[in-house]
Amino acid sequence: MRETYDEGQAAGRLKVPVAAWRWAVASGLVPVADAGAGQWSRTVVQAADAEGIRAALRGPAGAWWAAEHLTEALGQPLPYGRPPVTATAVGHLVRAGLLAYLGGDTATPDVHPDQVAALARRRDLPALLDQHVPLGPDQAAHRLGVRRTEFDQVVRLGWITPVGTVTIDYKRARGGATEVPLYSAQDVALLPLTRPSVDWRALRTLAPGRRSPLASLDPIDPAEGDTVFLAEAARIAGVGRAAVANWRRRHDYFPAPVAGTDVYPRFARPAVVAWLLAHDKIAVPTGVPSATLTLWSDQAAERRFRLDDPVLELADDAAAEDRLSGWTADTDADALAVLTAADGGEVSVRRLTAPAHPRSRYRAGSGWSTGSGRGRAACASPWRGPPACAAPPHRGRAPGRRAAWCATPSPTPPRARRARARGRPAAA
Asked: Closest Cα to residue 189, out of 254, 281, 95, 282?
């Protein structure tokens, strides 16, 4: 009979840790199992380099360390609406094949630090997390930038359904275990696109204690299903109705109507969204865009601030105030408030760099609004204004504070006016 070894026997034969043998298989130092599932032949084991396998392990690292490292890779501070990576999320990445399992608890496994570092360098890390790591209700609400109340209403309405559950043991604190539903992070991220009729800005700016506008809506009727007309499908894709009608004529595999009439057909919303995703008509939002605001003051050195989800509101009247707003970290918001509140000093905006966005949108956000000072911004040409507005603080819960910069332009930069006409922030 042919002699075979499992991973434990192979590691014992070579006198290396089992984790080292697992990493050697995952990294290609030894061939994959050649004698059946999880079984290696004696020839493969005898030919393996024990010293090389032992030296390649470098760890392993715990799931908590890996989670912190991946969270740092997402950006510091975290982008608005992006929950931190948890040790449980590392377990999902292992089960997805993105990280090798080296031991420990299967829910929060040990992994190789080099492989974690390589994953952290990937530009598509946010998309990978959305694809493979489900979210609990609180995390899903954080991902949307809304209160838990709003997300509970989304679930009640039938706009999203669980993809699984996880058991949380509260025996020490509450005397029992409970099943917590898990939701696809992609489905959560797509909600602002797939439900274009919802005022997501209003939902994200609701103060604590206010009734959710979603509470007055009726859930999806199971008999009718979740359907859309061509006009709403066009709104989801950010195009005109004629474009969707043209796609339907040109592509035989466009979803077939499930209700309605020949003149006004209705299509299953999930099928339309899946088709739009498959044909690159829409993309899963991996996060909000960010801008870099560079300020200079005669009383302080030049400093850069990051604004998440920046919005530049340009007044119709050239003598009125323009307003730039966006989410920022608490430390940046405090520094900006101190800088713009300085007496007798002038604050200048040296540079504003913001990405263009193909669809018009605005969100002021809850949180804290910092005071604004006198300044100028170099978008296309300098503009200057007197001390401007400072909105009162809102006692809302938010990942960060909303920094606001107000100034009176004279004249409004032409490039900024073009940005307003196109419905997107201006870039320097």
From this structure: 282
CA 102 vs CA 37, 61, 77, 344, 350: distances in Å:
17, 9, 30, 61, 50
- Taking the C-alpha atoms of residue 208 and residue 394, their distance in angstroms, rounded to an integer, is 10
In tens, the pLDDT along 184-219 reads: 999 999 999 999 999 887 888 788 889 999 999 999
Q: State the average pLDDT over residues 1-14.
A: 84
Q: Any bridge partners for residue 268, and if so which?
A: 227
SS3 40: strand
Q: Are 110 and 103 in contact (CB under 8 A)?
A: yes
Q: Are 112 and 60 in contact (CB under 8 A)?
A: yes
Report the C-alpha gap between 423 and 418 in whole angstroms: 9
pTM for the full model?
0.73
368/376 Cα distance (integer angstroms): 23
309 — pLDDT class (breaks 50, 70, 90)? confident
